[in-house]
Amino acid sequence: MQQYEYKVVPAPARGDKERGLKTGVERFAHTLSGVMNDMAAKGWDYLRAETLPAEERAGLTGKTTVYHNLLVFRRPLSLDPAQGVGVHAAHEPAANAEAEPASAATPATEPSRRALSADAPEGRAPSLRASRSDEDEDS
What is the rounded CA–CA span in Å between residue 8 and residue 33? Predict the structure, then answer.
């Protein structure tokens, strides 16, 4: 059975201005197609759009329900035992995952991502708090 991983991104709230697009619906459609094409280039298939409720704070003690428009994408996972179960087919970070730490950077053979280096020279960090002598001079 084919397994998938899913990624949910917020739908654009408004259309970006673009030359030749005069109406709001044309601008919105252009912006939405740009988001969908970017995701498709990364190996994600558009699945559906959802409007989901979320409870958020209103004021100091109140709560209110707001609705968020979201786009749902999916891509198949590879079930090849050599690659490991649950490995996605494209060489892309996992869905909705944060960036990998520098020690787990990908090899230089993959041109689409740059490896991070810890070879930066170390220097003295700036002081965030005033020292006692600075406080005495201000008095």
Answer: 16
